[in-house]
Amino acid sequence: MPRSPRGNTRDQLTAALIELVAGEGMDRASVREVATAAGVGIGTVQYHFPTRRDLLTGAFEAVVHGVRDRLALPAARADADPAATVVAILRELVPLDAPRRREAAVMVAFAAGGP
Questions:
Q1: Please, are residues 110 and 59 in contact by the beta-carbon 8 Å criterion?
Q2: Residue 43: is its pLDDT beyond 80?
Q3: What is the Cα–Cα distance from 41 to 56, expressed in whole angstroms?
Q4: What SS3 string covers the chain?
Q5: Is residue 83 a contact partner of residue 69, using CB atoms and an 8 Å limit?
Q6: What pLDDT, on the 0 to 100 scale, is given for residue 17?
Q7: First-to-last CA distance in the chain?
Q8: pLDDT at position 9, please?
Q9: What is the pLDDT of residue 6?
Q10: What is the pLDDT of residue 37?
């Protein structure tokens, strides 16, 4: 079976951690739990993220970059009405759907406990 590219495994690990933190909190975010959730061995997690802090930081950065990228879209539209731009940005920030609720839960968990 071919090995997956490093970026894909890192993404898989951060996604598993995000799900754990969003669903069960920061305390559940052990390297072992992440490995189990991602379907990989502990060594694979440690290869990509040598410490738990590195893993937590990687997941937090993934969430922040996703939010930043989504916010850049409405903000970049020079022809948009300012009020419409604000509404579009708020729609991206308010956790109305599952992915945004997950992001909000992760941000709150990190704000409360940090890596």
A1: no
A2: yes
A3: 17
A4: CCCCCHHHHHHHHHHHHHHHHHHHCHHHCCHHHHHHHHCCCHHHHHHHCCCHHHHHHHHHHHHHHHHHHHHHHHHHCCCCCHHHHHHHHHHHHCCCCHHHHHHHHHHHHHHHHCC
A5: no
A6: 93
A7: 34
A8: 92
A9: 52
A10: 94
